[in-house]
């Protein structure tokens, strides 16, 4: 039975059953594959025939994961990587060469910032940062050698948002490749390709897994673009392991129900903290006070599970709050079933200068709250006692 409903697709898309007629897909822990004869081996390596030749290229588990993600995000094809950062590196590596230029949102994950400033810069790729809250400035940054527009929306950890339809039109006007890091939203809340993006990237380590167990990433787009990605990835080797692919594919079966609870809890936390006298600022896409609230409502189904706050007292105030938390975990990860508190200025974004952090709204008192699936009363009680 075919369905257009997200939950049914995520649960019922499955690799072909073996002769054992298993109900749940098995794990294919194999590095290589057997060919029927020498001709089949030649045809597979010549891309004249579809099939598995080596698990660095493809594996039944990674293929199932990719197929599900393509259906959920509205993409034609994809490639699964060992981590989210491997997905970003592979995308940059597949499409950029010396002399090319990127226009990127200034609000990006710390390791993405490192790729732009310290890795690809050594290879002759230049970039300019543009502000998510100033879309009117983006076109001025595009140069004759600009090859790619890269954006996180919502951003990490500032929760800034930009209109993807606007960026899609801008990319089309200037014949640019629009790449969107869709990690915070997931395909359940936002589908960048339908809004004009060419490639959507996920750190599957986050909400796709959703339980803090495995690393993974994925790159999604049309067949022509993903062929470029695969051509680069087959030789650079960032492939996802079969075991992690199996975990991630199974995790997609519960993504919708998990995200519903994450979003429900996060909105209640944001509304509570917005009224708290010890909180200077609360950023959450579905709060009417968010600067891009109307854009968020237009392109996202719900507001996501991340709430970013600024507490009084700077870094000491942030440390005091975090050290007093009893149920929240202090961790650099996010998107877990368990609620997590992170101090970006001294962890995930510590390699940025203080000026760079201030520009993207990361103050010394900024804390990223990844709101989990615990009962909302317990989440609020822990926050309340930590602020007391």
TrEMBL record:
Please give the InterPro entries that the UniProt record associates with this protein: Cys/Met-Metab_PyrdxlP-dep_enz, O-succ-hSer_sulfhydrylase, PyrdxlP-dep_Trfase, PyrdxlP-dep_Trfase_major, PyrdxlP-dep_Trfase_small
Q: Which GO terms describe its cellular component?
A: cytoplasm
What job does the chain carry out? Catalyzes the formation of L-homocysteine from O-succinyl-L-homoserine (OSHS) and hydrogen sulfide.
Q: Gene3D superfamilies from the entry?
A: Aspartate Aminotransferase, domain 1, Type I PLP-dependent aspartate aminotransferase-like (Major domain)
Quote the subunit structure annotation.
Homotetramer.
Family assignment?
Belongs to the trans-sulfuration enzymes family. MetZ subfamily.
Query: Mind listing the UniProt keywords for this protein, alphabetically?
Result: Amino-acid biosynthesis, Methionine biosynthesis, Pyridoxal phosphate, Transferase
**Cofactor(s) the record lists:** pyridoxal 5'-phosphate
Q: Which GO terms fall under molecular function for this chain's record? A: carbon-sulfur lyase activity; pyridoxal phosphate binding; transferase activity, transferring alkyl or aryl (other than methyl) groups
Q: What does the record give as EC number?
A: 2.5.1.-
Q: What is this protein called?
A: O-succinylhomoserine sulfhydrylase
Pathway(s) annotated for this protein in UniProt: Amino-acid biosynthesis; L-methionine biosynthesis via de novo pathway; L-homocysteine from O-succinyl-L-homoserine: step 1/1
